[in-house]
Structure formats: C-alpha cells, structure tokens
Amino acid sequence: MIYEYEGKTEKEAIEKAALELGLERDQFDVEILEAQKNSLFKKGYVKIRVMPVDAPDASYVEHDNRMYESNTRIVADPLPQDEFEKKLLEFIETVIEKMGYEGKTEIVFREPQKTGIKLTSPNSSILIGRKGKNLDALQLLANIYAGRLGHEDMRIILDTENYRIRREETLVRLAYTTADKVHMSHNSILLEPMNPFERRLIHTTLNDIPDIDTKSEGDGLYKQVRVLYKGVR
C-alpha cells in the first residue's frame, strides 16, 4: 500500500508518515513527489510518497481496554460458517462497491460475542480515511446490520492493512511522549479527537504514571483527551 504525506520539510513529512503509520523509519521507503522552497509569496513544502516494507500480518485478540493485542494470533477459517456470516461479508462488500471501490472480506477470528473481519482492497487507504474515520463508519454499519440480522449482542471488528494495530501502537507512543512533555512543562496538552476505544487506550496507558492525569473533553463520538500535570508545581 502507498501513502502520501506533506510537510514544511522532508523531515517533517517523514516524521508525520512514521507517526500515522506506526512504523520506524527503516520500515518504509520514501519518494519525494514535489518540493517547493520558501519564497517571498509562497511557503515551502515537501510532498512524499511512502511505501511500507514487509509490513507484518494482522493479529487480533480481545483485551479489556484495547481493540487488539498484537502478541497473540487467533487463526480462524476465513470462509463464512453460517448464513449470518455470509450475509455480513456480502453486506460489507456491497457497501464498498456502492462507494465505487473494490474490496474482499474474510473472517479472521470468532468469539462468542465478537467477530473479526479483514478487508482487502487496492483502495484501503481511502476506506481507512483520515484517522480511521471511514473504517469506523464501515464498522458501525456492519454492527447495525448484524443487529438487524438478529445478532444485537455480536460486536463486529473490521480492519484493513493492519490499521487498527498500527493505530494502537502510534497512540501508545503518543501517550508517553505527551506525558513527558506535560511532566516537563507542567502545562496540559489536548490531543486530537478520538473514538471511544482510542480514548480508552490513552487513559489506560497513562493511568499509572505518577503526576499525570487524563480526562475526555467535548461532545459526540469523537472527543479529545486532555493530558494534565497533577503533581506539585
């Protein structure tokens, strides 16, 4: 999969790519697509193309406060085992087709009240969307449809290109980096809007760090987490 990023400098664009993809610098190749130097009337910027190298396969498992835990792999028959799974996979593929894209789905894990689905598509970066919002929307539709099929208690987890695992790793690093900044400056930092699972991950990661506290702010599904200093100033 190929991604594109922009920054004021090549270094900034690469750092942005590494943060969002959850990869180390040696885990992706970079191609400069466009570069513009600072001038009197225009600000400089660099546009790069990023190609991950030997990306690992997805791993899926439930955790109390996380969507996935990457150190354990659950193997499942990828083919639908009953009418419910068949209709669910067909529904997701039909939605993607009506969006104008290609996509194939398969089962990656089964639990009593949770089913994991892997989406494979040449348009996965678009289906993921910015900060995973398109993927979250597709997952929400899949859960609503599962409820209409009589499986209201079944939670559907939809992933593609290992996005959710990479996103978790990125958020854990972001949590620790932010906590360090807050601890040094004693000033609070408000993070980007996140869905409930991502916010819970931030709260849980920083829960036991001395002098650091977190709270959610805002309304709706995508709230922000504020990281605060609670020690003696």
How many strand segments? 9
- What's the N-to-C terminus distance? 47 Å
Mean pLDDT: 80
Oligomeric composition of the shown chains:
single chain
- Assign the structural class, choosing from mainly alpha, mainly beta, alpha/beta, alpha+beta, or little secondary structure: alpha+beta
Please report which band the strand proportion falls in: under 5%, 5-15%, 15-25%, 25-35%, 35-45% or over 45%: 25-35%
**Which parts are unreliable, with pLDDT below 50 for 5 consecutive residues or more?**
54-73
Helix content: 25-40%
Q: Report on the biggest sheet.
A: 3 strands, antiparallel
Integer-rounded radius of gyration: 20 Å
Number of helices: 6
| Succession of helices and strands | EHEEHEEHHEHEHEE
How does the overall form come out from the CA principal axes? globular
Strand order of the largest sheet: 1-3-2
Structure, described:
The protein has about 230 residues and is of the alpha+beta class. About 35% of the residues lie in helices and about 25% in strands. It is built from six helices and nine strands. A three-stranded antiparallel beta sheet has the order 1-3-2, covered by helices on one side. The protein has a three-stranded mixed beta sheet with strand order 4-5-6. The relative contact order is 0.11.
Q: Which features does this protein show?
A:
233 residues; 36% helix; globular; 3-stranded antiparallel sheet; alpha+beta; 3-stranded mixed sheet
